[in-house]
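Dear Dr. K.,

Following up on our conversation at the group meeting, I've run the structure prediction for Precorrin-6A reductase from Mycobacterium attenuatum. I'm pasting the input sequence below exactly as I used it, so you can double-check it against your construct before we proceed with anything downstream. Let me know if the numbering doesn't match what you have in your notebook.
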Amino acid sequence: MTRLLLLGGTAEGRALAASLHPHVDIISSLAGRVPDPALPVGPVRIGGFGGVDGLRRWLVAEHIDAVVDATHPFAATITAHAAQVCGELNKPYLMLARPPWDPGDAIVVASDTQAAEAVEQQRFQRIFLTTGRSGVKAFAGSAAWFLIRVVTAPDDTVLPRRHQVVLSRGPYGYDDELALLREHDIDAVVTKNSGGDMTRAKLDAAAALGIPVVMVARPPLPAGVATVGTVAEAAAWVARLN
Ligand code: NAP
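The predicted structure tokens came back this morning:
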């Protein structure tokens, strides 16, 4: 039977684990960033592998035959490592990446730093910042006010001077997002192009209120990587391995 590593940390990773376990021999992997992660069904390992060399050693030691990478579209380092090591070891590798959002009228930028520059250039004053814990530090020098929504609290040293932190985890609904934008008198939303339905309501709410959006584009995928957009397609790819 094929033994599969499922790189997760996303709703898609959990859904794929649920659709494969127990009839496929899978082990899910989480980075261990959040203290209370939502766990996939089936066997799970937690923590980094120790770079490219650590991942290569681990795949060989665990007799892994194939890897499905269902990590977040912005988790570019682990994806680069997995694509490289699978190429070297000649193991089948699939990227499961949910389709990106259509940016529409959003100001599209390539990085958190560029998003912070756009906020300054446009003179936005009250920003709903949803780029995640690691994205906050790019805004540390801004004089604007930020409503910062994150799963785990950022380090105090990277926070902008004027802010409020909201700790929460999606999914988020349209009515709640509309109320949040109104309550805090938000004049711009800053987001990554994460894609998917769990967090897209903020875009619909911003559009309804005519609030501009600054959207950080996804990092490019490694060249030549097989990619699917849905859990069902990933499950079909796994079925073809046997
Ligand atoms: P990253 O920058 O691509 O990876 C940094 C390091 O974390 C990797 O080199 C690896 O350490 C370790 N790592 C990442 N994902 C791992 C996994 N699934 N299993 C084992 N080790 C992993 O990753 P990130 O952006 O910090 O994301 C970390 C995790 O959070 C991922 O599982 C991702 O799916 C999830 N997540 C990320 C975001 C986001 O916006 N980036 C949003 C939601 C969920 P070693 O080099 O030591 O192997």
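Two things stood out to me. The chain is about 30% helix and 20% strand. The chain has a mean pLDDT of 97.

Best regards,
J.T.
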